[in-house]
Amino acid sequence: MALVAQMLEGKRKFKDAESLYSECLERQREMLGDSHVETLRSMNNLATTYHVQGKYEKAESLYRTCLEREREKLGEAHEDTLRSMSNLAGVLVDQEKYAEAESLYRVCYESEKERVGENHPSTFKLKTQLIQVYNKQEKFDEANKL
Predict the structure, then answer these.
(1) N or C: which end of the chain has fewer CB within 10 A?
(2) What pLDDT is stored for residue 108 in this prediction?
(3) CA–CA dist 74, 78 (Å, integer)
(4) Cα–Cα distance for residue pair 76/62, rounded to 1 Å
C-alpha cells in the first residue's frame, strides 16, 4: 500500500497518496503499535504528503509526534530521527517560524556531519538549508561562517 502511495506521489497525485498513507498508518498502528519503526515511517510519509499540499499545521503536528516517538525509540542521532527533524524544520520554514527551524537544522547538520562526514551529500544539503534559514533571518555573518 505504501509503495502505491509513493508511486502516486511521484505522479503528483497527492490527495490519492494522502488517502493511502492515512489508511496504511491506521493499519500499522493497529497491527504494530504507535511507536514501531514502520508506523513512524508511514507517519512521516503522511506528514510529507500534507506538507507538499500546503497543509502545514497538519504536517507540523504529525512531524512533531513522529519526531518525539523516534527520539524515544531510536535516539537523537538516528537517520530516521534526523529525517523527521529536517522535515519538521522544512515545514516550519514554510510557516516563517525561522528560529525553531534554525535550531532543528543546526542539530541535523551537526549530527549528520558527525555521522557521515562534512563532504557527504546529505550533510551538504543540511548545511545549505541552514544557510538559507540564516539568510531569511538576515543572519548573514552566521551563514558566512558555514
Answers:
(1) C
(2) 96
(3) 6
(4) 18
Mean pLDDT over each residue of the chain, to the nearest integer: 93
* Residue type at 29 in one-letter notation: R
Contact (Cβ atoms closer than 8 angstroms) between residue 20 and residue 5:
yes
**What Å distances lie between residue 88 and 25, 33, 53, 97, 119, CA to CA?**
18, 22, 15, 11, 23
Q: Which of 41, 15, 14, 9 is nearest to 28 (CA)?
A: 41
Question: Where does the pLDDT of residue 11 fall: very low under 50, low under 70, confident under 90, or very high at 90 and above?
Answer: confident
Length reported for the chain: 146
Q: What does the block give as the cell for 33? A: 503499535
* Owner of C-alpha cell 493511502: 20
**Stronger pLDDT, 17 or 71, i.e. the higher one:** 71
More confidently predicted of 60 and 11: 60
Here the cell at position 55 is 497543509
| Inter-residue contact 109 to 71 (CB < 8 Å) | no
Q: How far apart are CA 51 and CA 54, in angstroms?
A: 5
